[in-house]
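Database export, one record per block. Field names are fixed; values are copied verbatim from the stored entry.
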Amino acid sequence: MNKLSVFMLIVVLASALFVVTVRHENRLSFIDLQEMEKQRNHLQYEWGRLMLEKATWAMENNIADDAGTRLGMSPPPPEQIITVRIAGKQLDNMFNKGMFNKGMFNKVTRSIKTMEEKGG
């Protein structure tokens, strides 16, 4: 073999190795792209769910405002408020029987925890 043939063989092998390396990097990049798209879709779903939750909370505030303005309702004075304690299992049973939804259940649970922290 002459020197030109050896040089051409080395160039062909180097370019083949380069092609293999680039294809491997492209595959890894594509896998990263798919994972990021999956994460983006999950975050978009979560964002939509949070916007819906935000709208729900705003609706509850609007109901309270409408009750005060249109119906002339107001919260009772503190001396007329009666606190009823419900044990945890009773609260679970009420939830399981469908007496109120999960949002109400969470609010009641938070209220009970707050009352217990205040020593009430």
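Remark 1: Residues 83-120 form one domain.
Remark 2: The chain is about 80% helix and 0% strand.
End of record.
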